Amino acid sequence: GISKYDPDKIKFQHYANDRRHPEALRGNLVWALYEDSHGMLWIGVEGGGLNTLDRNTGKFRVYQHDAHNPASISSNTVMAICEDAAGTLWVGTRAGLNLFNRETGTFSLYLHEPDSSTGMMVDPVRALYADPDGSLWFSSRGLNKLAPETGELIRFTNEPGNPKSLSSNGIQAIVGDERGYLWIATGKGGLNRFDKKTATFTRFMHDPENPNSISMNYVLSLCQASSGALWVGTFNGLNRFDPGTGEFRVFTTRNGLPNNVIYGVLCDAAGNLWASSNRGLTRLNPITGEVKNYTIDDGLQSSEFNGGAYFKSKSGEMFFGGVNGFNAFHPDSVRDNPYIPPVVITTVKRFDERIRPPGDGASPVEFSYKDDFVSFEFAALDYTNPEKNQYAYRLEGLREDWIYCGNQRYATFTNLKPGRYVFRVKGSNNDGIWNEAGAALEFIVTPPFWQTWWFRWLSVAIGLTSFLLFFRFLSAKQKAKAELDRKFAELKLQALRAQMNPHFIFNTINSIQYYISSNEQKAAHQYLSKFAKLMRMTLDNSEKSMLTVQDELDALKLYLELESLRFEGKFTYELDVDPKIDVHNTEIPALLIQPFVENAIQHGLRFKRTKGALSIQLKAADRAIICLIEDNGIGIEKALELKSKQNGQHKSAGMKVTRERLETLNALKRNGRSIEIIDLSKRKGSTQGTRVKIVIPVEG
Questions:
Q1: Where would you tag: which of 35, 181, 356, 525 has the fewest CB atoms within 10 A of its CB?
Q2: Residue 200 has pLDDT above 80, yes or no
Q3: Which element (helix H / strand E) includes 504?
Q4: Which residues, other chains included, contact 97 with Cβ-Cβ below 8 Å and sequence gap of 6+?
Q5: How much is the average pLDDT of 55-83?
Q6: CB burial readout 406-438, b (16+ within 10 A) else e
Q7: Do the beta carbons of residue 294 and residue 306 sit within 8 Å?
Q8: Is residue 203 scored above 80 in pLDDT?
Q9: Mean per-residue pLDDT for 213-228?
Q10: How far apart are the C-alpha atoms of 532 and 521, rounded to whole Å?
């Protein structure tokens, strides 16, 4: 058949066990990787022995334990490999330390001998470090130093109570720095720095109270950077350690790492960090913080890698091993896919119903407010590794921030409020190259009819119309009531006027009767003549509720003449009218002033022993005429005293009737002013008499 190779997709060379080929890697669980000075790659495999790869032929050669051959490797599980300055290859296995002789292809095992000065133990050796001074450092129940030429072995272990001893005997990795220190990763005691001159350890352990301490005490891997910083992989993130300040800075999944278990860490020539974990391989730029994660789809052996299985060759090539073989790559050859993929919205749905998106220039998609479930499907059109394409979306009108959804190719919204929205989506290719323009789709969620603009305007119009109709109804009702009140007041005035006219006639007839009884025929005739003239005038105005000021004054003058005749000149009178008053056009209630004039004569001047004086003044005021009637009679108090002695005499109703007429008239005109009567005899410095002030409302 035909196989397709895509260099943009497969970035890492993968070596794995293939049972069809006996010269392939013997096993897939890789624990150790090392390239020696001859360019040979050595691989330690779980149960598969020591494997070596000829990079020129691509063939593997395997060295395995043979119980019948003491010169074979001591265990088929190889956990650490290194080459010392002399070119000797050292192999750490699950059953001790082995020295490999390239010429003979045989192994020498350093066994534990109770009586031996070396005190070597046949225990797992997980970490090896070849010191430039020729010594070999390795882990086996502590830290061990071996002098290959003499075979002398010195062991350093944890000493309880001694803070300068090794913090834990379980060692995962050993590296040296330019200053001659050894850095030791332990399984429980954090990071240790060993000073070979003083043979003391300095511990760097996690402190929950110190955010600048190491993130966890379970340390898996170490890498010395050219900058002098030490990178420390733990079970809880990747730490950058500054030996100068003693402070750690941690990178975790919060910074973009796919997983916090860092099995291996290497530095490339560009300053980037490469870290293996339980979820693939990561490239980290420590300056910018940019993270790039690689997965099986990029050619990785698996998502899961192994502790100790990481190595960088002198050429810069990197090797990482895991549960399905190992990967080899040059960091500068791992290039990102530069293609910016077009992004399209493929499907729009309401519930499970598909809606075809409109083309350019088409009207927006419409949803009803009843459509509680709206979804969009989209795609970035790059097929290098579509499972790794990334997406982000936002819904303008609902929220403005982008929602990054990984490789999920759909977005769902529920219970959207009525309104206009724009759905935007952007995407990237498999290497995170984004199309920031993306794609957009405008849509509308139509409201229920009671939330539409026309319904709102209709509601406002109906409300305003109802209000206006109600207002008109109230206005009409108020006008009708006012009209009824006016008619009622007018009827009341007519009734009061009807009472007033007989009262005046009664008093006048009394005067005529007096003259006749006194046998004063001439006076009676003169009086009767004037009375007849006054009656004609009264009859002429009897149907009128209002008279002009002039007509009222004419009647008043006749009345005064009659009274003057009756009392035979016992008093004088003066009638003064303000010229501002238009006496011919201004109307006032008929016979309104006469009762007060009559009262002044009958009760004030009548009983005065000397000549009396009566003053009547009309003054113009704001929408009214003020009538002042003043006499120099006996005063109110004296008049009441005399009145009480005349119980059998007729009691005048004129004042009472006129007062009621004025009050009714003021109520009709909405005027609170009426009548004010002042007893002048009670005022200091005054003689006697009465003043009546009448406020007569007129049309403005």
A1: 356
A2: yes
A3: helix 453-517
A4: 90, 91, 109, 110, 120, 125, 138, 140, 146
A5: 94
A6: eeebebebeebeeeebebbbbbbbbbebbbeeb
A7: no
A8: yes
A9: 96
A10: 16
Q: CB burial class (10 A; 0-12, 13-18, 19+) of residue 15?
A: buried
Rounded to an integer, what distance in angstroms lies between the CA atom of residue 299 and that of residue 26?
A: 20
Eight-class DSSP state of 604: I
Both tokens assigned to 552 = 């009222």
Strand partners, 91: 81, 98
Distance CA 233, CA 309 (A): 13
Percentage with pLDDT > 90 across the chain:
56
Cβ(293)–Cβ(281) under 8 Å? yes
| Cβ 183 vs Cβ 224: under 8 Å | yes
CB atoms within 10 A of CB 280: 22
Q: What is the largest CA-CA distance in the chain?
A: 186
Report how far apart, in Å, the C-alpha atoms of 455 and of each of 73, 367, 449, 458, 468 are: 91, 19, 7, 5, 19
Nearest to residue 618, comparing CAs of 538, 537, 693? 693
What residue type is assigned to position 425 of the chain?
A: V
CATH of 19-156, one of 2.130.10.10, 3.30.470.10, 2.40.50.140, 1.20.1740.10: 2.130.10.10
Which CATH number does the domain 519-697 belong to among 3.30.379.10, 2.30.130.10, 3.30.565.10, 3.30.43.10?
A: 3.30.565.10
Q: Once rounded to an integer, what is the mean pLDDT over residues 41-57?
A: 94
Tell which phi-psi region holds residue 57, choosing left (phi > 0), alpha (psi between -120 and 50) or beta.
alpha
How would residue 478 be classed by pLDDT, with cut points 50, 70 and 90? Answer: confident
Q: 381: Cβ–Cβ under 8 A, 6 or more apart, which residues? A: 341, 342, 343, 344
Number of residues written out for the chain:
700
| Domain segments of the chain as ranges | 19-156, 170-335, 343-451, 519-697
In tens, the pLDDT along 275-309 reads 999 999 999 999 999 999 999 988 999 999 999 99
Residue 371, amino acid? D
- The domain 170-335: what is its CATH number? 2.130.10.10
- Work out the angle at residue 280's Cα, subtended by the Cα atoms of residues 279 and 282, and round it to the nearest 5 degrees: 115
Q: How many CA atoms lie within 13 A of 622 on its CB side?
A: 2
Sheet holding 571-577: strands in order across? Answer: 571-577, 612-621, 624-631, 690-697, 675-679
pLDDT tens digit string along 53-65?
988 888 899 999 9
The CATH number of 343-451, from 3.40.50.80, 3.10.20.600, 2.40.440.10, 2.60.40.10, is 2.60.40.10
Amino acid at 471: F
